[in-house]
Design brief:
By secondary structure, the protein is α+β, with helices and mostly antiparallel strands. It has a single domain, classed as 3-Layer(aba) Sandwich (Aminopeptidase). It has 2 helices and 6 strands; from the N terminus they run βββαβαββ. Strand 5 and strand 6 form a beta hairpin. The longest helix is centred in the middle third of the chain and has 17 residues.
């Protein structure tokens, strides 16, 4: 059984949540980016966060800049801390308060 729950599926992007150790993690895969997609994503994000009653975490890979730091900041996430993954790579944990 997976603990990933889709919250938005569009041809340009897909977003989902993952519950890991009682912490809610946000993931997004963006396939196309332009002004129209950005505007739709902002609407979807506003609708989703309006219903949300918890804080969110996201993992950022600084080597590949995935997801992009600019994107993380735009959607209200702030840098929390640096961690070392099981693979030995460094990752950044970002946090968004409810």
């Amino acid at each position: 059984m997976t603990n990933k729950v889709p919250i938005c599926r569009r041809k340009e992007y897909e977003a989902w949540l993952e519950n890991h150790k009682n912490t809610l993690w946000f993931h997004i895969a963006v396939r196309k980016w332009n002004r129209t997609v950005k505007a739709q994503m902002e609407k979807d994000w506003a609708n989703f966060t309006e219903m949300l009653n918890t804080s969110l975490y996201a993992l950022h890979n600084p080597k590949t800049n995935t997801p992009k730091t600019k994107f993380m900041k735009h959607f209200g996430f702030g840098f929390m801390k640096e961690i070392t993954g099981k693979d030995g790579n460094t990752y950044h944990v970002w946090y968004r308060r409810k």
